[in-house]
């Protein structure tokens, strides 16, 4: 026996002995995740044992002594190496819960029928090709899971399971169901996802107790009329089939509340659908509907209606009469001409309520378009980013006006400057002709962002989607001086998956310099479209750059969107107004009778905001409360106000500390009247650029963290006995620590003044020191105080950083922990150590400080430094109590959403799932991700993995397993040779529903999910 196996065996003996010494109290034994290859025969001495956890080991057999466990009721053998059903189990006549998923079973012997007390049997993720007839003898069985096997048929005897309430047969090879399925009179849930069913037997209608029927990804071409007899059915999922029509009898499903029909061949619905008075959710997306069926107007309780990717040409007015309607999914119905921002940011989830906004926009705009006609929008944004002095202003002048550098004042850009560029286009290209057939005018709003570091954080107010991004580099500077990775990461993050990003190598005429490694940049940033070489001295490369920018701008989504002429006229008036602010009341007057409805005015305002004509912050109760009367802002006006503060020399000397009088004086000197001061202040607060000082007092002292002293103050900090943690970044966001301090300013230490790159927090009776090392692109966290409280304080710090990370999509960050007793050694990847623990690996050979040196790390000890031994023991106790159910994928498009399910209803969703199961699933995901070549796919998967890991602790045990399982399924779907559309859809929706379950979750699941789908062509 190998040393690890011997250690596991000895540990099992110790635990068996301890349980034996408890006598009649020794009813529970946890031998999970030890790495056992053999179970000690002494196990047979535990005659009082009722629950035994053996999951996540390497057992291939059980000793004969196992049959002596006559009192055993619960046995978990999940994730072992069993190839045959263990014979001793047949003697366990008290057994009522048997879990053997994720083994290598190829068959079940007839003796399975002897387990007459069995109520739950889980055999998912094995290799079963058939079931023995004796399965029908399990007269007490209530739940049977056979997910992910090789079943082609079911024995007729399955109908004898008269007490069965849940039957899971997903991911098998079933082509038909036996008629006897109709005899399962107690059945409440039937899952047949991912099989090969072409029809359902008429006997399906006999399942009078059935509440949920899932048939995703089969080959059904029709439904039997008998389906209408399922009087208790509340959920019917028929996604990814080949249905061309539905039987009229479907209208008899009086209890139905959720009906999923996407990805079929439907062109209409039977009028009887209107009889479903309790229907709350209907998804008929990815079908062939040209019009919404009129029968739906009778479904008065309908809350969610999905009809993505169809052929809709118009929306009926009766939609406005559905008073309960909150969610309306209409993505990829281009004939409706509804901008993506109105539809919602995410097309893979129900997301936030949007129905009112969609309908308001559609009908207001349609009315204006019908009365006045439409013109294509023909407008887009070009955002020019880069370090100071790389020539951004000169580049814009050369592109828009043909000016050489000698004709452009060398004053540098302070804040943001906008330049309008109008070009003539024809057939998608620039045109020399200004007029003529097919010639149009394209307006490009070019934004020049100041490159000074102090401005970077404020830039994020204006980086948007649906724009062309130009990252300008100076040839004479190297990549590090150009900060190219930072700017590319910012453009990819805020521009979204559809952003057009080009690197412009400016000053290309200079004879010496550091031309960037273009190949390496493409590998690190797959979203990068290409490179442009320009010189603003002799205008070299400018004509080619113009053509490229115009061509890419014309391809942006929405550029050719038809817009009512009256709307465009009002937009022109707004552009010409001299005012810097405009109240909502004055905005309504400007719109006048041309756009009289509030919804039309609001959506026109949103359109102007997207194009950069104005910057509009909605005045809800949590946004710009102080600025409700002046919520429409000139972008340059508001940024120059912010930069007036950031550039003030006296304020810099005070380390960013100012009071109300000082703020008024600074802004007044730049022609900002006192009544506009609060607008600037509220915008800065909203974007973590300003917060109240701890001692703000009567003068209302405030602090701008970006302007704090660069030098760390002198203060004592213990050299030992601290909890250490590190965030390591590939690209470190600008202003990360100032933003962190703004969010945690109430916890800042009163004894240690914060500085620009660090602070000390008072948390949970502890002190937490947080320092940003910008050179090494890392944040160092050190916590000292009572040992029992340190980890809670660290959790607070990590939570805030996670929220900040979530603002920036694709941000690559690694969490690191120290090697126990070796602070000099390279730190360990926290998530990797967690994965090792979940796999039952107790020791890890880590890298030492000397060449070739290795350090044997005790995995549990390393993790105890972060989570705490007491917490670890509580986890282990929970492992022993939980009832591992194997792997159940819960598909988001018919999940319970935010409704918690009752444990007493025997729903699989509501049962506890072992943390080891979740850990193993995450390990599988991590292994698949690490096998991918470097690039955007791997980066997106790593980002999604991190987001899911942040989400999991906030979920109940049952939903933790669902989320982890869906992550594994999605990873398989997008990394396969032929990406699987069906599994991507159901797993992505499951992850998104899980994130919606946690109402205070600040992470970003939707971003990576949508990006992955589009990257591999599944969305």
Features:
globular; 30% helix; 7-stranded mixed beta sheet; 1019 residues; 14-stranded parallel beta sheet; alpha/beta
Average predicted local confidence, pLDDT: 83
Number of helices: 26
Please give the alpha-carbon distance between the first and last residues: 51 Å
The largest pleated sheet is described as: 14 strands, parallel
Rg from Cα: 32 Å
Q: Could you list the spans in which at least 5 consecutive residues all have pLDDT below 50?
A: 619-629, 876-916
* Strand count: 37
Percent helix among the residues? Answer: 25-40%
- Choose one word for the global shape: globular
Give me the secondary-structure category: alpha/beta
Query: Could you tell me the strand content as a percent range?
Result: 15-25%
Strand order of the largest sheet: 1-2-3-4-5-6-7-8-9-10-11-12-13-14
In terms of topology, how is this protein built?
Layout: H1 3-21, E1 28-30, E2 51-53, E3 74-76, E4 97-99, E5 120-122, E6 143-145, E7 166-168, E8 189-191, E9 212-214, E10 235-237, E11 258-260, E12 281-283, E13 304-306, E14 327-329, H2 340-343, H3 355-372, E15 374-376, E16 379-385, H4 392-401, E17 416-426, E18 429-430, E19 440-449, H5 453-459, E20 467-474, H6 479-482, H7 484-495, E21 500-506, H8 518-524, E22 528-533, H9 542-555, E23 562-564, H10 565-576, E24 581-582, H11 584-591, H12 598-611, E25 615-616, E26 632-633, H13 635-646, H14 649-653, E27 657-658, H15 660-669, H16 677-686, E28 691-692, E29 702-703, E30 723-729, H17 736-743, E31 758-763, E32 766-773, E33 778-784, H18 787-807, E34 813-817, E35 828-829, H19 830-838, E36 843-847, E37 854-858, H20 859-867, H21 869-881, H22 915-930, H23 936-951, H24 957-975, H25 981-997, H26 1006-1015
């Amino acid at each position: 026996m190998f040393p690890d196996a011997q250690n596991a065996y000895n540990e099992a003996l110790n635990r068996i002995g301890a349980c034996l010494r408890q006598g009649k109290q020794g009813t529970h034994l946890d031998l999970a995740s030890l790495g056992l290859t053999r179970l000690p025969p002494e196990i047979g001495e535990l005659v009082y044992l009722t629950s035994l956890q053996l999951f996540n080991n390497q057992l291939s057999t059980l000793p004969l002594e196992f049959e002596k466990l006559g009192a055993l009721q619960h046995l978990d053998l999940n994730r072992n190496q069993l190839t045959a059903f263990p014979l001793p189990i047949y003697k366990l006549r008290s057994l009522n819960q048997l879990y053997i998923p994720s083994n290598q079973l190829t068959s079940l012997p007839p003796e399975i029928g002897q387990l007459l007390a069995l109520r739950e049997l889980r055999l998912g993720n094995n290799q079963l090709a058939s079931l023995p007839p004796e399965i029908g003898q399990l007269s007490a069985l209530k739940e049977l899971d056979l997910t992910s096997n090789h079943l082609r048929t079911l024995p007729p005897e399955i109908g004898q399971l008269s007490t069965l309430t849940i039957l899971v047969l997903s991911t098998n090879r079933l082509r038909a169901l036996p008629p006897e399925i109709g005899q399962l009179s107690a059945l409440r849930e039937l899952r047949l996802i991912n099989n090969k069913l072409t029809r359902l037997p008429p006997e399906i209608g006999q399942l009078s107790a059935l509440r949920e029927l899932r048939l995703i990804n089969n080959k059904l071409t029709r439904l039997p009329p008998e389906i209408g007899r399922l009087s208790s059915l509340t959920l019917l999922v028929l996604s990814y089939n080949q249905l061309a029509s539905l039987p009229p009898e479907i209208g008899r499903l009086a209890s139905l509340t959720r009906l999923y029909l996407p990805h079929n061949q439907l062109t209409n619905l039977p009028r009887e659908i209107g009889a479903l008075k309790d229907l709350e959710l209907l998804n008929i997306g990815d079908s062939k509907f040209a019009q919404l069926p009129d029968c739906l107007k009778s479904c008065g309780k309908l809350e969610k209606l999905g009809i993505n990717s169809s052929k809709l040409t118009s929306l009926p007015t009766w939609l406005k009469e559905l008073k309960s309607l909150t969610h309306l999914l209409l993505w990829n119905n281009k004939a409706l001409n509804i901008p993506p921002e109105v539809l919602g940011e995410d097309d893979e989830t129900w997301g936030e309520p949007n129905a009112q906004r969609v309908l308001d926009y559609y009908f207001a705009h349609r009315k204006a378009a019908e009365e006045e006609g439409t013109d294509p929008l023909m407008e887009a944004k070009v955002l020019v980013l880069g370090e100071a002095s790389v020539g951004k202003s000169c580049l814009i002048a050369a592109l828009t006006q043909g000016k050489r550098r000698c004709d452009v004042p060398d004053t540098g850009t302070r804040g943001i400057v906008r330049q309008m560029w109008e070009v003539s286009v024809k057939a998608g290209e620039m045109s020399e002709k200004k007029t003529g057939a097919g010639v149009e005018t394209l307006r490009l709003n070019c934004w020049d962002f100041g490159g000074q570091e102090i401005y970077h954080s404020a830039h994020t107010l204006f980086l948007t989607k649906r724009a062309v991004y130009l990252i300008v580099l100076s040839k004479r500077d190297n990549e590090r001086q150009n900060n190219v990775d930072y700017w590319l990461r910012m453009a990819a993050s805020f521009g979204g998956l559809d952003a057009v990003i080009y690197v412009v190598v400016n000053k290309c005429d200079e004879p010496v310099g550091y031309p960037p490694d273009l190949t390496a940049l493409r590998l690190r940033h797959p979203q990068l479209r290409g490179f442009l070489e320009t010189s603003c001295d002799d205008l070299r490369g400018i004509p080619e750059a113009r053509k490229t920018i115009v061509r890419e701008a014309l391809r942006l989504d929405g550029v050719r969107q038809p817009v009512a002429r009256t709307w465009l006229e009002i937009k022109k008036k707004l552009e010409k107004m001299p005012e810097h602010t405009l109240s909502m009341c004055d905005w309504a007057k400007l719109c006048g009778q041309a756009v009289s409805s509030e919804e039309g005015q609001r959506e026109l305002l949103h359109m102007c905001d997207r194009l950069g004509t104005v910057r509009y912050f909605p005045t809800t109760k949590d946004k710009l409360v102080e600025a409700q009367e002046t919520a429409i802002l000139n972008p340059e006006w508001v940024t120059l106000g912010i930069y007036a503060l950031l550039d003030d020399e006296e304020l810099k000397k005070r380390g960013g500390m100012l009071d109300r009088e000082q703020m008024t004086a600074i802004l007044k000197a730049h022609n900002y009247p006192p009544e506009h001061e609060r607008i600037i202040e509220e915008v800065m607060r909203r974007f973590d650029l300003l917060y109240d000082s701890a001692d703000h007092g009567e003068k209302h002292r405030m602090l701008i963290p970006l302007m704090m002293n660069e030098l760390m103050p002198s203060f004592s900090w213990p050299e030992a006995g601290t909890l250490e943690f590190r965030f390591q970044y590939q690209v470190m966001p600008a202003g990360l620590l100032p933003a962190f301090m703004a969010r945690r300013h109430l916890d800042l230490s009163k004894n240690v003044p914060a500085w620009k790159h660090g602070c000390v927090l008072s948390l949970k009776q502890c002190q937490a020191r947080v320092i940003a090392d910008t050179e090494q692109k890392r944040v160092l966290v050190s916590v000292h105080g009572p040992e029992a409280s340190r980890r809670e304080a660290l959790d607070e710090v990590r939570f805030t950083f996670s929220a900040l990370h979530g603002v920036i999509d694709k941000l690559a960050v690694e969490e690191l922990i120290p090697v126990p007793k070796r602070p000099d050694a390279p730190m360990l990847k926290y998530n990797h150590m967690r994965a090792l623990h979940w796999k039952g690996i107790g020791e890890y050979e880590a890298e030492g400080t000397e060449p070739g040196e290795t350090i044997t790390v005790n995995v549990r000890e390393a993790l105890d430094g972060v989570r705490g031994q007491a917490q670890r023991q509580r986890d282990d106790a929970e492992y022993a109590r939980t009832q591992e159910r194997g792997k159940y994928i819960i598909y988001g498009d018919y999940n319970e959403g935010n409704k918690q399910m009752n444990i007493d209803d025997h729903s699989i969703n509501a049962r506890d799932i072992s943390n080891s199961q979740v850990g193993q699933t995450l390990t599988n995901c991590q292994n698949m991700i690490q096998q991918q070549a470097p690039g955007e796919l791997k980066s997106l998967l790593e980002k999604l993995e991190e987001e899911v890991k942040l989400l999991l602790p906030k979920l109940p045990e049952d939903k933790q397993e669902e989320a982890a399982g869906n992550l594994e399924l999605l990873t398989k779907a997008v990394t396969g040779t032929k990406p699987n559309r069906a599994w991507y859809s159901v797993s992505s929706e499951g992850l998104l529903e899980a994130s919606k379950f946690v109402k205070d979750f600040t992470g970003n699941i939707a971003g990576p999910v949508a990006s992955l789908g589009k990257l591999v062509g599944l969305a």
